[in-house]
Amino acid sequence: MLTNEKIDELLGVGESFEASYKLMDILKDDTARNSTFQKFLQIENDLTFDWFTDYFQEEHSNRKNMKQDFTPDGVVQLANAVLPNAKVNADICAGTGGLTIKRYSQNPNATFYCEEFSDRAIPFLLFNLAIRNVDAYVFHGDSLSRDAKAVYKLKKGKQFSLIEKTDETERFDKIDADTVIMNPPYSLKWEHRPEYLDQLRFKDYDVLAPKSKADFAFLLHGLNDLNETGTMSIVLPHGVLFRGAAEGKIRRKLIYNNYLDAVIGLPEKLFFNTDIPTVILVLKKNRSSSDVLFIDASKQFEKQKNHNEMKPEHIAKVLELISNRQSVDKLAHVACLEEIKENDYNLNIPRFVDTFEPEPVVPLADIMKGIKQVDEEIERNEREFAKMMTNLHGTTPESDKEIKEFSEFFSRRIDKLYGTTTKSKEMEQLDLL
Fold first, then answer.
1. Are 373 and 330 found together in one domain?
2. Average pLDDT, whole number, for the chain?
3. Which of 279-293, 330-344, 380-394 has the lowest average pLDDT?
4. CA angle at residue 48 from 9 to 56, to 5 degrees?
5. What distance in Å separates the CA atoms of residue 413 and residue 418, rounded to the nearest whole number?
6. In what side-by-side order are the strands of the sheet with 111-116?
7. Which of the residue ranges 198-212, 288-302, 399-413 would you say has the lowest mean pLDDT?
8. Owning domain of residue 32
């Protein structure tokens, strides 16, 4: 079991903050790299998931400045399952590679393109790719500004990928991927520049994503990397479905271009660092129809101690809805283009999937019983209060007289309200106090 402590031990570090630097040194040395890979494989040989997700997000993630939220396994599986097999896959904001690893598990012979900004994440990403012996390219830099710190080429070897630094940044100008998968930082601030509108990825939309929210900038960047028959799945906050201004214009154009295929609303509290609910958007080039499938999967989870988790049965339910592509009461709706236009291109899921559950009708007898219980509780409390008042005394003759007069007034009020002859068992018990 690769615990955080075991990972530190295998990397030869005393404190977790040293891990990224030490790992990069290991990866540069062929002998040290192969030896370290073998040590890890002796403990864990399941290559279908990211071993470092918990380790990295607990020890190294930067939620405040870079809004890093590592994708939970249920979302990883679902975001991957909505994509077809691929010869070329791109992962924007790849982190340590969780989404790419899931793509690899179904497409082991594909070529992978990963982009990641974080200096701390890059060594773990390279590790994850190389130990799986894949062909890959890694862009270390800002996906939106295209400012590159480094580019790495990984080539399949006898057992592990060989890693070399290269200057092939032009490979990332237009990837022509069969599939793109991504979970970018939510609503990240970015410094957009007017000249970006001349770039192929943005020029068709006339506006840029707002400076305060780069969600659509990431989406359009990923969409530009698709080939003419490609499919993309992207995890984003719900705000992209209904926010207006520039985002509304981009959303309208995406629908006009017939790229949006499905909107899948996920449960809240799935992520480690945020409770907000998210949505998976599925976008396709060269679609044969113009409708959009809306799925409300907000209740497809199992509650854990501090978060919610999508289990295999929940994922299977969503995939069944996608496969059937039919309207299902309270779960899914296939919206035609005219219906979307009538909603002014607002894609908020409740506009299309009605999940309203009417309150059950309570029998009148139960209501009367409840009222009676409340009345009895009020009487019991007031009689108890009256008993307590008789035992109170003031600190002066004047205050003592005032308390006594109020106690007598309150007792008369109770006798008038509830009577004095018939007493319940509770009232009789109060008399014994």
1. no
2. 90
3. 380-394
4. 40
5. 9
6. 162-166, 148-155, 135-141, 111-116, 88-92, 177-182, 226-237, 278-284, 260-265, 292-296, 332-335
7. 399-413
8. 4-351
Q: State how far the Cα of 60 lies from the Cα of 7, in Å rounded to an integer.
A: 13
Task: Look at residue 391 and tell me if it is in a domain.
Answer: yes
Strand partners, 292: 335
- Min mean pLDDT across 149-158, 216-225, 297-306 is at 297-306
Same domain, 39 and 177: yes
Tokens coding 237? 């906050």
Domain for residue 41, yes or no?
yes
> Is the Cβ–Cβ distance between 164 and 73 less than 8 Å?
no
164 burial via Cβ count (<10 Å: 0-12, 13-18, 19+): exposed
208 near 60, Cβ under 8 Å?
A: no
Global pTM value: 0.82
Q: How high is the pLDDT of residue 63?
A: 47
Residue whose token pair is 């007034």: 409
Residue 431 confidence (pLDDT)? 47
C-alpha span between 241 and 278 (Å, rounded): 11
Question: Alpha-carbon distance 231 to 181, whole Å?
Answer: 9
DSSP 3-state of 377: helix
Give pLDDT tens digits for 159-191: 999 999 999 999 999 999 999 999 999 999 999
Is 357 contained in some domain? no
HEC readout, 49-103: CCCCHHHHHHHCCCHHHHCCCCCCHHHHHHHHHCCCCCCEEEEECCCCCHHHHHH
Q: Is 95 left (phi over 0), alpha (psi -120 to 50) or beta?
A: left
Which DSSP state fits 350?
Answer: G
Residue 429 clears pLDDT 70, i.e. is over it? no
Determine the pLDDT at residue 59: 63
Residues 419 and 333 reside in one and the same domain: no
Over residues 280-290, the mean pLDDT reads 95
- Measured CA to CA, the distance from residue 323 to residue 294 in angstroms comes to 13
Kindly state whether residues 319 and 416 are assigned to the same domain. Answer: no
